[in-house]
Amino acid sequence: MQQRWPGHLWIVRHGESAGNVARDAATSAGLPRIDIDIRDVDVPLSPLGERQSDALGRWFADLPIARQPQVVLVSPYLRARETAARVHAEGGTPVAPAQFSVDERLREKEFGVLDLLTRMGIETEFPDQARFRTLLGKFYHRPPGGESWCDVILRLRSLLDTLFLHHEGQRVLIVAHQVVVLCLRYLLENMDEAQILAVDRAGDVANCSVTEYAPDASGLRLLRYNHTIPLQREGEPVTAAPDSAVAAR
């Protein structure tokens, strides 16, 4: 059976969030816990994240309308929805927020008991989990109440089935989170654990960076990864802090 590929695929990490800022502050101060008092799902963009999202929207707006995203799939987390909405507001896609396909399978990796802890906090409060993670590696380690990368990959396999079934030939924009970007690369490029962890070690996925695919005879071909020119051309800082639970990523 012939595979049904989208006509074009962009995968974007959300703009810098208030959680990214709080995480950096806690790490710099040597604190065990990140000081933010709202659910991860409700963490908004930071002011810089808003500007990054606007710059990304203008980059998409420079594409001819016939090449702009015509389908938007987005994580239910506020920072991802705000990023996509600002791309639309800047003319980067004709798809309005009311037409976004909000899909919980694109949500952030769940950190369970390690949520809101810095690396130091995890080593202090959950030394057994720190040892397990070192032993198993981030690909397989599942903190209590949380997810491993494999768990994220499992839900994303289902998401790709939906993408291929319902969006054949369409130009699709996905706005989600760092681990989601990496795990989608793992799936789309048929990587193994060592390959995707090598990509991860090479550097974090930048906020509002673009990972882009186009179809060819063998499937979807990677055109660019972690592309930050949309921000650099407008002089916006490129940020790549992990989300709130840094050591669990």
Task: Provide an overview of this structure.
The protein has 249 residues and is an alpha/beta fold. It has a single domain, classed as Phosphoglycerate mutase-like (Rossmann fold, 3-Layer(aba) Sandwich), CATH 3.40.50. It is 39% helix and 14% strand. The protein contains nine helices and six strands, in the order E-H-H-E-H-E-H-H-H-E-H-H-E-E-H. The protein has a six-stranded mixed sheet with strand order 3-2-4-1-5-6. Helix 7 crosses helix 8. The C terminus is likely disordered.
Short description:
The chain is an alpha/beta fold. The protein has one domain: Phosphoglycerate mutase-like (Rossmann fold).
Give the tally of structural domains. 1
Helix content: 25-40%
Give the ordered list of helices and strands.
EHHEHEHHHEHHEEH
CATH topology: Rossmann fold
Widest beta sheet: strand line-up: 3-2-4-1-5-6
CATH superfamily: Phosphoglycerate mutase-like
Shape call: globular
Low-confidence stretches: 244-249
- Whole-angstrom Rg: 18 Å
If classified by CATH, what would the architecture be?
3-Layer(aba) Sandwich
Biggest sheet character: 6 strands, mixed
**Beta fraction:** 5-15%
The number of helical elements comes to: 9
* Ends distance: 36 Å
Compute the number of strand runs. Answer: 6
What is this structure's SSE topology?
Layout: E1 8-13, H1 18-28, H2 47-61, E2 71-74, H3 78-89, E3 101-102, H4 119-125, H5 127-136, H6 149-166, E4 171-176, H7 178-188, H8 193-201, E5 210-216, E6 219-227, H9 229-232
Parallel strand pairs: 1-4, 2-3, 2-4
Antiparallel strand pairs: 1-5, 5-6
Helix pairs in contact: 2-3, 4-5, 6-7, 7-8
